[in-house]
Amino acid sequence: MTEGKAAARLPAALESRRGDVEGALLAILPAEGAEPRDLVAAMRYSVLAGGKRLRPLLFLAGAEFSGPDRLPDDAIEAAAALELLHTYSLIHDDLPCMDDDGLRRGRPTCHVVFGEATALLAGDALQTLGFELLATRPAGDARAARRARAVAWTAEAIGVQGMAGGQALDLAATGAVVPDAERAGLLRRIHSLKTGRLIRLSLELGALHAGADAGRLRDVSRYGEALGLLFQIADDLLDVTQTSATLGKTAGKDSIQDKLTYPVVFGLEGAFRERDLALAAAREAARDLEGDAGLLAGLAAFAAGRDR
Fold first, then answer.
1. What range defines the domain where residue 160 resides?
2. CA dihedral of residues 247, 101, 163, 226 (deg, nearest 10)
3. Which of 49, 186, 216, 262 pairs as cysteine with 105 (C-beta 3.0–4.6 A)?
4. Can you give the CATH number for the domain in which 295 is found?
């Protein structure tokens, strides 16, 4: 196997937990055929469409390297809550009033299949279900303070100072004339908030529930920040180097919509250089958490080398 193909795969230690995440999602979601039927069908259609399940797996990775406590079995549902929140953001991003995309994970987007109103409600319902899980899992009075912090951190991460704010900045920059001196800084801020913040949060929540101390949490956050930026730079590159069939979503959409991206701001070669710098930063942060060439370094290689 070539290095590029190896990097395109999640590390085996995390890949082995994907089945646990899938099982948790099936248990969490309303049952097939439950009322209201259209809303439940739209929720299940979007969540069960596949995907890397990266954010729940990052939760588990953050716990493994960060604290003295073993996660209880029901922590997997708290991890799965992050996939619900991620899916809610994808449903809303794809709406005609946002990025207006008709393809996601290799099939028609939620609003194409179920209509805009039901898609909007499906995203809302997944967001609230995610918060319900974060507020109740892992269960037990002894973990109440950690659950409260998890809810507060998540609200900040997906709100105006996080994912929603990043989306607003992205929409405002699309098609706009941004002075050259401001383009790189604005681009990094958009990516840090819109994509990177939830990736960082996923690691932080795992560390929190594992009982990480303040210093360890700072190290996890630094790694998560670097990994989130790396992930989004790679996304920008995939949009211009891969096909829709490979990506499972519409390729070239960023260029068509005149979005601010790394290839646009830095050129294609410059974007690859920025990716490599972000990879180096992620590896350095990983080294502080796990030493050399461990799981977190493997995750960084995956983020840089994936093909979808």
1. 3-305
2. 20
3. 49
4. 1.10.600.10
